[in-house]
């Protein structure tokens, strides 16, 4: 005998996908403009930044595709739907970002060892335009649903925002002083900031894929709260995991002294878990205390 609750949050995956698609189009469009200007001006710095924005456009494309998949209805083969694709997309984008971090770091070190001429005025102008566009894309993403997939996409865009700030400062310094090492030095500083966020995102994505207990909740605390519910004798086989970054599932065996209390206990547990912990996807199995005692005695006897 079991009780299974599946209230189903109304997912805003469709709206999220549209936001990500718009961000993709803006980012990809400006990367093309920046590449053309860089080619026309003979600026390696601008061509490199255009390549960075192109990788961000790819990351936004992955995120948009994941949001579209997550909006698919459950099927016979995927009874939960495809909401967990959010973790896969976040993992891919986190790894993607780490590759970008390594690439920028290598280039920055090479430029420190062998400085190259930089057109400071052109870099400053295009970086200022890029800063405005990236800031607009970041604002667009921050207004929507803040799930792990969107956070991964936002991390790429914020990397570009910080990169644009570094480019503006370095372009101004180079224009005034001609000191080109400022560009790779600032790049390494920005990379350090991005690296921290990328590793954190990678950890969360892997934890979700491994069906770990969400970081925001405590399994022992929830187990104790459930066991303290009126008419509950004990709780065992308690499992808590994430269906997506904003939806938590729980399953447990609930031991009762009197099975006649089950309906009331189920209502109390639903209310407790939903109101206090935000968990509304429950699978609870009631068990009579006498059956559990007999099973324990048999195990002890063996």
Explain what the structure shows.
This protein has about 300 residues and is of the alpha+beta class. The protein folds into two domains: about 10-210, Alpha-lytic protease prodomain-like; about 220-300, Cation efflux protein, cytoplasmic domain (Alpha-Beta Plaits, 2-Layer Sandwich), CATH 3.30.70. About 70% of the residues lie in helices and about 10% in strands. It has nine helices and four strands. Strands 1-4-3-2 form a four-stranded mixed beta sheet. Helix 8 links the parallel strand 3 (about 245-255) and strand 4 (about 280-290). Helix 2 (about 45-70) packs antiparallel against helix 5, helix 3 runs antiparallel to helix 6 and helix 5 packs antiparallel against helix 6. It is elongated. The chain starts with a strand and ends with a helix. About 35% of the residues are buried.
Keywords:
Alpha-lytic protease prodomain-like, 4 strands, 12% strand, 302 residues
- Helix percent reads 55-70%
CATH class of the largest domain: Mainly Alpha
Task: Please outline the major beta sheet.
Answer: 4 strands, mixed
In DSSP terms (H or I, runs of 4 or more residues), the helix count works out at 9
CATH architecture of the largest domain: Up-down Bundle
Q: Structural class given helices, strands, pairing?
A: alpha+beta
**Morphology call:** elongated
Q: Order of strands side by side in the largest beta sheet?
A: 1-4-3-2
Predict the CATH topology of the largest domain. Answer: Alpha-lytic protease prodomain-like
Rg, Å, rounded: 26 Å
Mean pLDDT value: 80
End-to-end distance: 27 Å
Write down how many β-strands occur, each being a DSSP E stretch of 2 or more residues. 4
Overall domain count: 2
What is the element string, with H for helices and E for strands? EHHHHHHHEEHEH
Provide the low-confidence segments as ranges: 1-11
